[in-house]
């Protein structure tokens, strides 16, 4: 099988290459992801969650990803730098995978995908922006705030969590709508089904940020379920991992 390694930490690269070669796989390695990753049978990511999110910004049809954490949180990863050899051997032997829906953000002629969240902010820092929220074309609210986040259930432990959003278990496909610094007493986030159409519209053009990686300028954004899910090697303790992450954050 053809494998590819995307690495942020070159210290582990040689060890990972050796394991894959010993298992009989062809190996390529790149310090930065690109669309060419789609042509491989699986991807090994050496880095943190940010490295995996960078990979997912480049690929649409996603080969299974195995993550080796050399960062801080490692919510999306499968192992760390000390136990990856056994875990990657087991994962490749079983080759069991799982898919998590991504969202597609359309704004004018531009579109992008996100696994964690789409964030929409006013361009002027320190100044409130008024954002209209629509779900399935129905206006549900209009709020003044610094910005607003549309997160997936996978992203519920990321930026959305920092902004006061709820934690949603990873196998419950959802879009979580969370305002950032809303100028209204008592406003709370809410959760809708992943197959809803969510729209944000501001009076003036703002900045759209996908997973903290790609930035667009737009006045109106439409967020829908993508046809291209993220694919990972299966992790049996993924739900348990959510609560481990939350305890560590606290």
Can you tag this structure with a few keywords?
single chain; 250 residues; Tumour Suppressor Smad4; 2 domains; elongated
Mind sketching the topology for me?
Elements lengths: L1 E6 L5 H10 L3 E5 L11 E6 L1 H10 L6 E5 L9 E2 L3 H11 L2 E4 L2 E5 L2 E5 L2 E6 L6 E7 L2 E8 L1 E6 L6 H4 L11 E7 L9 E4 L4 E13 L3 E12 L4 E4 L4 H12 L1
Parallel strand pairs: 1-2, 1-3, 3-4, 4-5
Antiparallel strand pairs: 6-17, 7-8, 7-16, 9-12, 9-15, 10-11, 10-15, 12-13, 13-14, 15-16
How would you describe what is shown here?
This protein has five helices and 17 strands. It is 19% helix and 42% strand. The protein folds into two domains: 2-100 and 229-249, Rossmann fold; 103-225, Probable inorganic polyphosphate/atp-NAD kinase, domain 2 (Tumour Suppressor Smad4, Sandwich). It has helices at 13-22, 49-58, 84-94, 159-162, 238-249, and strands at residues 2-7, 26-30, 42-47, 65-69, 79-80, 97-100, 103-107, 110-114, 117-122, 129-135, 138-145, 147-152, 174-180, 190-193, 198-210, 214-225, 230-233. With 250 residues, it is α+β, with helices and mostly antiparallel strands. The model has no long low-confidence stretch (mean pLDDT 94). The longest helix has 12 residues, at 238-249. Strands 7, 8, 9, 10, 11, 12, 13, 14, 15 and 16 form a ten-stranded antiparallel sheet that branches. Strand 15 (198-210) and strand 16 form a beta hairpin.
């Amino acid at each position: 099988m053809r494998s590819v390694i995307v690495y942020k930490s070159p210290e582990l690269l040689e060890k990972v290459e050796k394991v894959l070669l010993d298992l009989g796989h062809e190996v390529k390695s790149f310090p930065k992801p690109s669309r060419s990753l789609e042509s491989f049978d699986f991807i090994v990511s050496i880095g943190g969650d940010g490295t995996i999110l960078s990979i997912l910004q480049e690929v649409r049809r996603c080969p299974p990803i195995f993550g080796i954490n050399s960062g801080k949180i490692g919510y999306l990863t499968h192992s760390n730098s000390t136990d990856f050899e056994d875990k990657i051997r087991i994962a490749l032997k079983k080759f069991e995978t799982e898919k998590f829906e991504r969202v597609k953000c359309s704004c004018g002629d531009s579109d992008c995908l996100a696994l964690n969240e789409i964030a929409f902010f006013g361009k002027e820092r320190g100044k409130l922006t008024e954002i209209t929220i629509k779900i399935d074309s129905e206006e549900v609210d209009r709020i003044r705030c610094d910005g607003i986040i549309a997160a997936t259930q996978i992203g519920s432990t990321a930026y959305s969590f920092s902004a006061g959003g709820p934690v949603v278990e990873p196998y419950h496909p959802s879009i979580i709508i969370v305002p950032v610094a809303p100028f209204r007493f008592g406003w709370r986030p809410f959760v809708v089904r992943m197959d809803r159409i969510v729209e944000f519209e501001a009076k003036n053009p703002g900045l759209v940020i996908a997973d903290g990686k790609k930035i667009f300028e737009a006045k109106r954004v439409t967020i829908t379920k993508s046809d291209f899910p993220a694919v990972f090697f299966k992790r049996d303790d993924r739900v348990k991992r959510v609560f481990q992450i939350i305890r560590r954050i606290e």
